[in-house]
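Incident review: delayed structure delivery

Summary: a single-chain prediction request sat in the queue longer than the usual turnaround. Root cause was a stuck worker, restarted by the on-call engineer. No data loss occurred. The affected request and its eventual output are reproduced below so the record is complete for anyone auditing the incident later.

Affected input:
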Amino acid sequence: MISRPRPRLLTVLLTLLTLAGVTALSGCSDSSASGGGTKITIGFSAWPGWFPWQVAQEQGLFAKNGVNVDLKYFDNYTDSINALSSGAIDANSQTLNDTLSSVSGGAKLSIVLVNDNSTGNDKVIARDGITSIADLKGKKVAVEQGAVDHYLLLLALQSANLTEKDIQLVNLPTDAAAAAFKSGQVDAVAAFAPFTSTALERAGSRAISTSAEFPGAIPDHLVTSQKLVKDHPKDVQALVNTWFETLTWIKDNKDAAVKIMAKRGGVSEADYKSYDAGTTIFTRQQNIDAFTPGVTAQHLDFQANKIIDFIVGTGLAQQRPSLDGLFDDQFVKAAPQ
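Output delivered after worker restart:
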């Protein structure tokens, strides 16, 4: 099984889609490879909503759209976040709360695409005998500290009038956290698919809270450096166009697509299909709606401010990040319908 956080997609695409490496931040490297002259390095890791990038690569869709992409897979999700923040890669697949944490630390980033929302594929899973979040008081809970499912865990604890101080937090990378829970070393784990499948192999285990209980709290994105947007807007547009073309290809080639994505995720095709309802892949129109300012969880600016209040209040961030330049909807608006 591969390691790292947040996977997302699958038959999800069969549901929603029916609606329809390393380069320096100071400048992308030049290359004469097919697909364009400027090489763009994109990071991604294990989450169903990001595996379509693997499909795009294997089907030659980046080159078809005139962009030269070095697609870099990270076994550890946090490493991919740090790579984007440090300028080691040009773009990355990551969540809104992780992006806000990076911006709080000084990173200059832009969200140019919403891949999906987590609607159940992030879970807090507990051993037999623990039936609610309230039962976690005093128990050992494994989670990748500072990453997306740490945020989910804190939200769940808050809903039960508990805080992190009420549990014994065991900080482990997500894959290791799931393995530790499976082997009985901890009482519970907070993880995302496909690592939830590993955790649920423990006899008697069950999900006691999921992202479905917190609508809109965990959106997933293609995030780029602001420098990439400024210096190479045509390439960014090509990336966004490729994404939507990939979703169409997946819709038209479901079995082949699931095979590619399950292989990348290190899970069976049956397991991959089981993630369906837990990941809501966004259409172009859903992207436009999300980027539009508003006062509900559907809107990124509203959700961002809720997340900022939370991560600052809980100490996950030391200062409020600026949202200037963060939400850039020009590319989804210009994408072919």
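Verification: The chain has two domains: 12-118+217-334, 122-213.
Action items: add queue-age alerting; document worker restart procedure.
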